[in-house]
């Protein structure tokens, strides 16, 4: 399976494995609002929402013009990068995760910026429908993940 | 795949396929509270929660002692049964879906009994974590659906 994944997807897999140890369940490629697609969104045991953007290279990071738009959709925001990534590039007031395809480690927690209730409700429902729709496509070959609008 | 599913699971699959046409995404075997396990829980486009209990036979229905406990966890409650099921047995003030492994049809809407906000929040989070955890197990062979408590 590993060889089918792009570098960023491998990082996302390692991130999701590690987040489970913190009680957070992550899913990939969630769309919180039109035009935005986050690499990993994770839901914690108390309903916390974390967003993790996975950057496989310096260029991948430098070309990202959207990440600041993600901040308003999460209680905490993190970057996930490989062990060779020049982490000095990253803003110090964001979370930092070092990852590979098999696991990860949180080096710096993203500062907490709690979602308002109404927004948390919206994003939790989006998360739920996205996860359930993807799950259906795995469980039932008669359904596609794009079968209905998530 | 069909031959691996028990009769009730086949009904659940047909139900979930049909619910997608109503914009509801269903997942199987959700535990809203300890000791309760619903066959299908579905999340609607506005955050509505529907519960569907699948009964493959008269005996399956008669032996169910718990279904009334499910009512308080959903906005609407339905039975799903095969075309040969004696539907006169079922309480008239519950929803009714006729299903097989490939599809379903809602014959009678379950009456609406809207969840209170706090309970909706709890059950939506459970739904989300359950779906995401099951999805992880499909996407990543290194993770099991029982990896952490949903």
Automatic annotation (TrEMBL), chains A, B:
A Pfam match: MmcB-like
Q: Name one GO molecular function term.
A: nucleic acid binding
Q: Which domain of life is it from?
A: Bacteria
Coiled-coil segments: none
Sorted alphabetically, which Gene3D superfamilies does this protein's record hold? Answer: 3.40.1350.10
Q: What is this protein called?
A: DNA repair protein MmcB-related protein
């Amino acid at each position: 399976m590993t060889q089918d994944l792009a570098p960023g997807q491998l990082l996302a897999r390692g991130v999701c494995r590690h987040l489970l140890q913190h009680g957070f369940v992550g899913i990939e490629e969630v769309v919180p609002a039109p035009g935005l697609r986050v690499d990993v969104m994770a839901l914690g045991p108390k309903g916390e929402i974390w967003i993790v953007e996975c950057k496989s290279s310096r260029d991948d990071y430098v070309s990202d013009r959207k990440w600041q738009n993600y901040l308003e959709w999460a209680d905490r925001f993190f970057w996930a990068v490989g062990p060779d990534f020049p982490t000095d590039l990253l803003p110090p007031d964001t979370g930092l995760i070092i990852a590979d395809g098999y696991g990860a480690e949180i080096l710096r927690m993203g500062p907490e910026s709690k979602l308002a209730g109404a927004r948390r409700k919206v994003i939790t429902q989006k998360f739920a429908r996205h996860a359930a729709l993807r799950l259906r496509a795995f469980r039932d070959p008669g359904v596609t993940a794009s079968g209905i609008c998530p």
